[in-house]
């Protein structure tokens, strides 16, 4: 399973647009089995949270299936 980090830019029901750290836009459909909900996605989008999406391509769709979406834990270097 592939993963990418970045920010959610738009949420509509269980679909979302995402801009990666490499500045590439991607479309995702949230899996029904994902631990995150559409409400979580909207909250993270509004807050500008950095998230990581683990996903798989979907046959016949332009969007990939997001299996896991979670805020990225950013470690501080001291």
Describe the structure.
With 78 residues, the protein is mainly β. The chain has a single domain, classed as OB fold (Dihydrolipoamide Acetyltransferase, E2P) (Beta Barrel), CATH 2.40.50. The chain contains one helix and five strands; from the N terminus they run E-E-E-H-E-E. Strands 1-2-3-5-4 form a five-stranded mixed barrel. It is globular. The N and C termini lie far apart (32 Å).
What labels describe this entry?
single chain; 78 residues; OB fold (Dihydrolipoamide Acetyltransferase, E2P); five-stranded mixed barrel
CATH architecture classification = Beta Barrel
Provide the spatial order of strands within the biggest beta sheet: 1-2-3-5-4
Calculate Rg over CA atoms. Answer: 12 Å
The number of domains: 1
Task: Assign the structural class, choosing from mainly alpha, mainly beta, alpha/beta, alpha+beta, or little secondary structure.
Answer: mainly beta
Question: Roughly how much helix do the residues carry, as a percent range?
Answer: 10-25%
Summary, kept brief:
13% of the residues lie in helices and 49% in strands. The protein has 78 residues and is mainly β. The protein is globular and about 30 Å long.
Task: Give the topology, please.
Layout: E1 2-12, E2 15-20, E3 25-30, H1 38-47, E4 50-56, E5 64-71
Parallel strand pairs: 3-5
Antiparallel strand pairs: 1-2, 1-4, 2-3, 4-5
């Amino acid at each position: 399973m592939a993963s990418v980090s970045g920010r959610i830019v738009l949420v509509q029901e269980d679909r979302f647009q995402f801009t990666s750290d490499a500045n590439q836009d991607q479309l995702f459909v949230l899996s029904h089995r994902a631990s995150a909900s559409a409400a979580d996605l909207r909250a993270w989008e509004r807050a500008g949270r950095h998230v990581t999406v683990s996903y798989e391509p979907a046959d016949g769709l332009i969007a990939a299936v997001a299996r896991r979406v979670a805020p990225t834990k950013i470690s501080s270097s001291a």
